[in-house]
């Protein structure tokens, strides 16, 4: 009898241990890289184990049971082929089906279903784009007290800038961070890269703090919390929140947001020597990875005034990723836009931060730096001149017999087929000959990956995105994610869609 009791007790303990172990294993943080790949790109090699953006956004909306928070620049999940103001105008139902517009409708329907089942939802965005601006989030919130909707104009706070982050947070546990807008074209007609993290409350709750900071900004009296300041680092007069480190400590106000690192005033925004990193054991179901050791992971944010705790600016995270490359290693950088200056404020800022970091690793570490920049219908003027000046590092690298410099910069334009045939199918009653809707056929991803570190961002590489615009990045040293992001980059780099940028002509002098 006693023996039977002991056996039952042992079985009970084993069962409890098994249930605890499996529950713990089931809730282990998991990470997938996520892509959108435009239709009609048959020569692009696929990368195994990468999820579809459309699927991930549907899952987040469909599986949320406690809360869903979304940051978006704009919304156009539903196409507008009948609206003359839209880049979708004039395309047939068959065209839209071929373009994959149905994926956007599925995401919108999943959000509608979530709203109808009384899920608490918060929607935060910039003012949006023509023709519907904030119509979709407004419709989702209309008549539903469980759905809150806010438009935040960062230009009121920084003089310029927008909400540019693309983030979904589900149940304070799951999160998407990436380049995809809440737009049907971002799911099937624009090339996007992001990361999807599940059962990662430590990460999701920190992103939630950033979300809450943006939400609070939208409800504060802007005039009471902003100042005009001479920015000593960037040598311009500009508007900033009154708690900014660009203001002398004695003149700063008390921040209404959670405390960030208090550092004595310096020329420019303080760089953290030891930014906070979480050390998580992260599973990568999309990649076979035998490593189960915890690896450092981090978050970074923009603008700097929205930092909290010991989290770093997004600019610093990009620089640190470039500098993480080992001797003789390779850094791969992908961006839609790249300009060594500001692009959207009244006074022009010269911004050498990333180009300096690139030159440093080329010279000191003999690193190879490969850069992909999008060439598309809305290409920024003078990008070509700037990129060619980056290539001048190769000349400088070998300019002296005393230079033992073996590094190199390589740059290619990424050209999605059909980029120069985008826009409405009909304009002023006449056929345009366009093959694809407006603002499509572009490589829109923003990320960097060295041989040890992967950085997935929402920011283009222009000054404004780091100092006046809302952006979020996630980075990791997890080997499987690093390797897979390299594979995504290499598939693009070696495809026929990537065209080399030619170096400066002989005798060209860089502008002083």
Automatic annotation (TrEMBL):
Record's keyword annotation contains Signal: yes
SUPFAM superfamilies: Phospholipase D/nuclease
UniProt KW S-adenosyl-L-methionine keyword: no
Assigned keywords, A-Z: Signal
Signal peptide coordinates: 1-25
Matching InterPro entries: Diverse_PLD-related, PLD-like_dom, PLipase_D/transphosphatidylase
One of the record's GO molecular function terms: catalytic activity
PLD phosphodiesterase domain location: 159-186
Record-given protein name: PLD phosphodiesterase domain-containing protein
Organism for this UniProt entry: Solanum lycopersicum
Annotated gene: LOC101264238
């Amino acid at each position: 009898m006693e023996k039977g009791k002991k056996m039952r007790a042992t079985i009970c303990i084993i069962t409890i241990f098994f249930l605890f172990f499996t529950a713990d294993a089931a809730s282990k943080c998991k990470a997938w890289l996520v892509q959108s790949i435009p239709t009609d790109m048959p020569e692009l090699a696929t990368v195994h184990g990468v999820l579809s953006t459309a699927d991930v956004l549907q899952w987040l909306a469909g599986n949320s049971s406690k809360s869903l928070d979304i940051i978006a620049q704009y919304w156009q999940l539903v196409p507008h082929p009948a609206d003359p103001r839209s880049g979708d105008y004039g395309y047939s139902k068959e065209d839209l089906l071929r373009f994959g517009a149905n994926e956007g409708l599925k995401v919108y329907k999943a959000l509608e279903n979530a709203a109808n089942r009384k899920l608490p939802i918060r929607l935060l965005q910039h003012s949006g784009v023509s023709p519907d601006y904030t119509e979709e989030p407004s419709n989702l919130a209309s008549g539903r007290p469980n759905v809150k909707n806010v438009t935040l104009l960062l230009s009121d706070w920084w003089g310029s800038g927008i909400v540019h982050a693309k983030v979904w947070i589900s149940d304070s546990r799951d999160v998407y961070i990436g380049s995809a807008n809440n737009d049907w074209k971002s799911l099937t007609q624009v090339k996007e890269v992001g990361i999807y993290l599940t059962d990662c409350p430590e990460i999701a709750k920190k992103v939630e703090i950033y979300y809450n900071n943006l939400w609070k900004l939208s409800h504060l009296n802007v005039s009471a919390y902003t100042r005009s300041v001479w920015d000593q680092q960037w040598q311009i007069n500009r508007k900033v929140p009154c708690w900014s480190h660009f203001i002398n400590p004695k003149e700063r106000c008390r921040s209404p947001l959670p405390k960030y690192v208090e550092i004595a005033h310096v020329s420019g925004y303080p760089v953290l020597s030891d930014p906070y990193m979480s050390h998580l054991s992260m599973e990568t179901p999309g990649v076979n990875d035998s490593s189960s050791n915890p690896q450092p992971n981090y978050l970074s944010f923009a603008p700097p005034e929205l930092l909290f705790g010991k989290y770093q600016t997004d600019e610093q995270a990009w620089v640190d990723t470039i500098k993480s490359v080992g001797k003789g290693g390779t850094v791969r950088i992908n961006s839609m836009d790249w300009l060594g200056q500001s692009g959207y404020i009244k006074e022009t800022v010269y911004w050498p931060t990333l180009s300096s970091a690139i030159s440093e690793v080329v010279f000191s570490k003999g690193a190879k730096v490969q850069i992909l920049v999008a060439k598309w219908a809305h290409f920024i003027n003078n990008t070509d001149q700037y990129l060619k000046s980056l290539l001048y590092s190769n000349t400088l690298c070998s300019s002296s017999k005393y230079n033992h410099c073996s590094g190199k910069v390589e740059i290619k334009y990424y050209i999605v087929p059909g980029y120069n045939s985008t826009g409405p199918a009909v304009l002023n009653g006449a056929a345009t000959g366009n093959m694809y809707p407006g603002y499509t056929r572009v490589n829109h991803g923003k990320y960097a990956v060295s041989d040890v570190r992967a950085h997935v961002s929402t920011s283009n590489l222009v000054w404004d995105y780091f100092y006046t615009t809302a952006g979020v990045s996630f980075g990791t040293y997890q080997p499987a994610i690093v390797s897979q992001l390299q594979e995504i980059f290499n598939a693009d780099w070696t495809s026929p869609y990537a065209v080399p940028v030619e170096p400066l002509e002989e005798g060209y002098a860089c502008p002083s």
